[in-house]
């Protein structure tokens, strides 16, 4: 079915398949009217506002924002974001304030000592702009803080290009950690962002994407990152249940449960400082050599283990099942990439993002079955009927 562009915009959307609804829980969001097949292009959209990277700003602004970032103890990103807002047209600024979610009443929702740093930075940046930028003379502090919240919670990447952007329609998808039903990518040749159905989407289902990016599918729970960067506590099964992405605890230096003899789950050690307090087994740098007996090594005590020893420990607990789930998540990531990109470049080489994924597998602090690499090879070679054209 052909799609028609919206009047006055560069938006092409399947309104025959989608509708915009509003609920108390999710606010304004897109809902499927009917079953949507996997691979369907849901909509393409031009950004409402593009934030150029600091390197593309005039030299005086680059120097000013770099010095101010040091003064305000932040990166230059929120300064560049707000500069893009205050220099936009009045019509665009109005849409930014009306079409996007922003910070709630953070100082009521959080105790003073628990206020997320992203909000504290936004307050400092908004106050500095109000006092120092002549373009802000007709803007109050509340408007500037509102705009900061819009960028913090709704920005999209521009693919491989530096900078970021805001999409009016693209901001109407809710978050899903493990199995989002839609995926976003930027089409540089057209200057448009596209959202595609990642799986078959049943009728009357909210459209979702992973706010942590497509690699978020393979990471450990995202409750802490979403709280810190998006100001909501994710309560999906992956974030509220046992962390299936945890690494294998070291049999040499991690305590065992006296009642079962099993290694203490990493989540029971210190969830807030997990990566600092808990030793993990990771692949040894020489682990791919077939003659090498020790191929796994603890990050903390440096004890070495053979494949056989590690696999035996996996079978003692539920870790083995975790590996298969982890493997499935990588399948989902590769599937997302192959929906959006050809598996090989013009020279017949494996797409660089797939090569990056394979390297990420090697670096991940989790026992890695060889089946993961096999799956990547299989998916790289498998044709996709619904794959987007490069």
Hey, roughly how much beta strand do the residues contain?
5-15%
Please state the overall shape, judged from the principal axes of the Cα atoms: globular
Query: What structural category characterises the helix and strand content?
Result: alpha+beta
- Using the CA coordinates, give the radius of gyration: 23 Å
In round numbers, the mean pLDDT is: 73
Low-confidence region ranges? 1-8, 266-278, 287-291, 362-390
Please report the distance between the alpha carbons of the first and last residues: 21 Å
What count of domains describes the coordinates?
Answer: 3
Task: Bin the helical content.
Answer: 25-40%
Order of helices and strands: EEEEEHHHHHHEEEEEEHHHEEEHHHH
Number of helices: 13
How would you write the strand order of the largest sheet?
Answer: 1-4-10-9
Question: Can you count the beta strands?
Answer: 14
What does the largest sheet look like?
Answer: 4 strands, antiparallel
